[in-house]
Amino acid sequence: MKKLLLATLTACGVWLGAQAQNTTHDYTDDLVVSVDNFSTPPMSTTVSIEFPEEGLINIELKNFTLEMEGAAPIPVGNIHVSEVPVTPQGDYNVFDLKQKTATFSDGDPGTLWMWSLLFPNGLPIDISGKISDTKLYCTLDLTFGTQIIHVTFGKDDFESSIHSTWAGKQTETTNVYTLQGMRVKSNVAKVHALDGLQKGIYIVDGKKVIKE
Q1: pTM of the model
Q2: Range name among 25-34, 49-58, 197-206 with the lowest pLDDT average
C-alpha cells in the first residue's frame, strides 16, 4: 500500500510539474513598423516565444515604441498575444489568427509606458507567421482607432532556407528512463521529454541526458 501511495504521489508530482513548466525561446531579427505610407527603418528586435503546451505559443514583443511620420514616438510597452495555435507544415510550423486580442504591460523601467493604462482590455490584432526552432517570421496588424499598425518581424524565407525540423520534433515521441532503468515517461514528445522531471541524469533515446 505504501509503495502504491508513493507511486501515485510521484506520478501526480510529475504531472503537476509538467503542467507548470513552460519553455521560452528568444528570436532576434529585424522589425519594421508601417502606418499609412510611412515605414520605419529595420530595427534589430527580440521577440520571446513561450510554449505553454504542444500546439500553442505565446508571443511577446518587448519595449515596443510606435513611430509615425510627423509625430513624437509613442511608448507602447510590451505586447502580448497568448494561446496562438500552430500547425506543422514541413520543417516548420505556421499560425494565422484573426481578431485576437493583444494585451499590454509596462516595459523596462525608466520609460512612461502608456498603453497598459490606455487600453487595459487590449486591442484587436491579426497575427500570422512561421516558426522553427531557429527562425521566426510574423506579421501583426494592430487596430488603433481608425489606423492599422502593421508590424513585420523577420523574413519569410523559410522555403529557401534550411532550418531545423522543429515541427517534426513536436510530433516525435520517446520514452524516458532513470539510470536504474525505471521508466518515468512513455510516448512523450521529444521536445518535452524532460519537462516536469527533477534535476538529474535520464536516459532518452538510449543516451544520457542531464536535466539541470
Answers
A1: 0.64
A2: 197-206
